[in-house]
Amino acid sequence: MTLFSSPHLHAGKRSQQLMLLLIAAALPGLLAQVYWFGLGTLINVVWAILVGLLLEAGVLLLRKRRVGFFLKDGSVIVTCLLLALALPPLAPWWLVGVATLFAVLFAKHLYGGLGNNPFNPAMAGYAICLIAFPASMTMWTSPDNYFDFSSQWLWFWTEQGNVDAITQATPLDAMKHLQGSTITEMLSANPDVVNYADAMFWVNLAYLAGGVALLALKVFTWHAPVAMLTSLGICAVLFGSGEPDLYASLSDHLFLGATMLAAFFIITDPVTSATSRRGKLIFGTGIGVLVYVIRTWGSYPDAFAFAVLLMNLCAPLIDQYTQPKAYGHHP
Q1: What is the pLDDT of residue 20?
Q2: Prediction pTM value
Q3: Residue 224: per-residue pLDDT
Q4: Which residues is 166 bridged to in the sheet?
């Protein structure tokens, strides 16, 4: 069986067909992002895949592996696709390149290649850029005033363009910096935030539809996604019910940021997540709780990369205590 990047596809089909299945499931989310935020995301996807393929081929040549054989499994394409979907639409070429380089070379091949990496490569590439280049990681177009293709293409290469159409105040950003205001007051003073929230609702809904389709096709089990969404939702209800104008609501946490993309396309990676059913429940629950904690009290508005990487670190320990024992086995 050919190992495949996140999510893992347990089926007796060729890896190319499985890659197309995953891309098809992610396509509604990609199209929604393009519709609301312009073609910047599509540019990111194409550039990340090109850079990723070149890096993958180079490493395979250095390791004296069969380049064509390993490129055909599609794992690097899937990694680069998920990474590009997580990046902001106005990410410049060098930022996408750095994220891809770190994901492919350091998070994947430094540990021996696919199947040996302890951390999700896409989230590792995203996290390193979020730490090193925080300003560039918040460059979003306003949903009702995004660039045309020529402007976004120019921005991608030169970081010059119609700066009036740029917003760095996403709802999750704004909610972390209320500065004594309530959420209602903050939203009324920031119309761009409201427009962004409306757009991200539809984007998350599109990824939810793709994720449900993958579940229906039994590409992965429900345990990790449902556990993550449930724990995130419980935290939102517990804290939001007491002071609803100071904490983001349940719907905010579920349909803003990268919630559905992470739930169905990121945390379902079997190489870096728990493997047993109980383990997946614990793994998903941990991610949901960490996302809420970091979003609410941490330094970053969206926290999926850090939450996933932290739980990747815990996955071997979770497996050790949740794997069923073989019949007749005595430790």
Answers
A1: 81
A2: 0.88
A3: 97
A4: 141
Lowest mean pLDDT among 49-63, 88-102, 175-189, 222-236: 175-189
Q: Write the CB contacts of 155 (distance below 8 Å, at least 6 apart in sequence).
A: 40, 90, 92, 147, 161
Q: Give the bridge partners for 140, in sequence order.
A: 167
The pLDDT value recorded for residue 15 is 67
Phi, psi angles (nearest 5°) of residue 14: -65, 150
For 142, how many CA atoms within 13 A lie in the half-sphere containing its CB?
A: 14
Helix (H, G, I), strand (E, B) or coil at 196: helix
Pairing status of strand 140-141 against strand 166-167: antiparallel
Residue where the block lists tokens 């660039």: 147
Task: Tell me the domain boundaries of the chain.
Answer: 15-321
Tokens of 208: 């939810």
- pLDDT score for 191: 61
Instruction: With CA atoms as reference, report the closest residue to 7 among 276, 277, 283, 265.
Output: 265
Instruction: Name the burial class of residue 331, with classes exposed (0-12), middle (13-18) and buried (19+) by CB atoms within 10 angstroms of its CB.
Output: exposed
Bridge partners, residue 141, by sequence:
166
pLDDT of residue 180 exceeding 70, the answer is no
CA dist 212 and 150 (Å) reads 35
The residue to which tokens 């990747």 are assigned: 312
Cis peptide leading into residue 270 (ω within 30°)? no
More confident: 234 or 139: 234
Residue 50: alpha-carbon gap to chain centroid: 19
- The span from the first CA to the last CA of the chain, in angstroms, equals 31
d(CA 38, CA 15): 31
User: Averaged over 228-233, what is the pLDDT?
Assistant: 97
